[in-house]
Amino acid sequence: MAKEKLVIIKEADLTNNCPECFNQDLKLSFYQKHKQGKLFNSITNVVTSKIVCNKCGTDIYPVSWTDDIERSFKYYQKMVIPDRTILTFTSFFWILTLLSVVVVAVGVYFLLQ
Fold first, then answer.
1. For the chain, first and last CA: distance in Å?
2. What contacts 11, CB < 8 A, 6 or more positions away?
3. Shortest CA distance to 43 belongs to which of 34, 32, 51, 52?
4. What are phi and psi of 59, to 5 degrees?
5. Cα–Cα distance for residue pair 8/58, rounded to 1 Å
6. pLDDT in tens, 43-78
7. Which among 8, 41, 69, 82 could disulfide-bond with 65, CB atoms 3.0 to 4.6 Å apart, if both were Cys?
8. What sections of the protein cross the membrane (predicted)?
9. Helix (H) or strand (E) run with residue 79 in it
10. Span 10-30, average pLDDT
């Protein structure tokens, strides 16, 4: 089973008011999902975001966003450039592939003898 982890691709400090404590210390983070398995590693095109108040520590969900927060979010969302999607195979995959080719070749050789 592949492990999934979120890698930060952009962070920004916002000066908008927190809807909970009305402090002006928010952090906006954009994450990109990476999958790592025994046979492959991949970078997906899934980008997620999170806004956290640095003072009270609460996550600010889109339901409670003000117009100012939404405007700032859209601005930074346009600036985010995610890594391109890549699928790379691990050395374990290449060893298994090579082994299977050798087994098939040996099988065909003995069949033809």
1. 41
2. 27, 28, 29, 30
3. 34
4. -80, 135
5. 19
6. 999 999 999 998 888 899 989 888 999 999 999 999
7. 69
8. 86-112
9. helix 67-79
10. 89
